[in-house]
Write a structure and sequence with these properties.
- This protein has a single domain, classed as Ribosomal protein L22/L17 (Ribosomal Protein L22, Chain A), CATH 3.90.470.
- The chain is 30% helix and 36% strand.
- The protein contains 3 helices and 3 strands.
- It has a 3-stranded antiparallel β-sheet, covered by helices on one side.
- The N and C termini lie far apart (46 Å).
- The mean pLDDT is 95.
Length: 125
């Protein structure tokens, strides 16, 4: 007597991958995510491989995971995959304290982010 499984949130021609608690601010991560939105899988991987941003390596691994999910779990054609969505959100903020002058304190915030990539198979071709 287990609970009924939830219906699939994505269409049959879509696959996704999610990375949580990534140590970068959402604003910086969104700059990297915007470079791959709407691109084919091959050109998105190339854009991330040559990106100077530190976080682009982690986003590239996530993109490879989304491509593998599409190929292995949903039997989608890798050559026709497009980055349909690359959404970035806030996770949590780690707060640290730094001693300042006259016995006061300065707050240091270290933000974390979540990113989800949805791959979609193009129709036709």
């Amino acid at each position: 007597m287990s609970k009924a499984s939830a219906p699939r949130r994505l269409n049959d021609n879509e696959a996704s991958a999610t990375l949580r608690a990534l140590r970068v601010s959402p604003q910086k991560l969104n700059v990297v995510a915007s470079t791959i939105r709407g691109k084919t899988a091959e050109s998105a991987l190339a854009a991330l491989a040559f990106s100077p941003r530190r976080i682009s390596d982690d986003v590239k691994k996530l993109l490879q995971s989304a491509i593998a999910n599409a190929e292995n779990n949903h039997q989608l054609d890798v050559d026709r995959l497009v980055v349909a969505e690359a959404s970035v959100g806030k996770a949590f903020v780690m707060r640290r304290w730094r001693a300042r002058a006259r016995g006061r304190v300065g707050r240091i915030e270290k933000p974390y982010s979540n990113i989800t990539i949805v791959m979609r198979e193009r129709e036709g071709d």
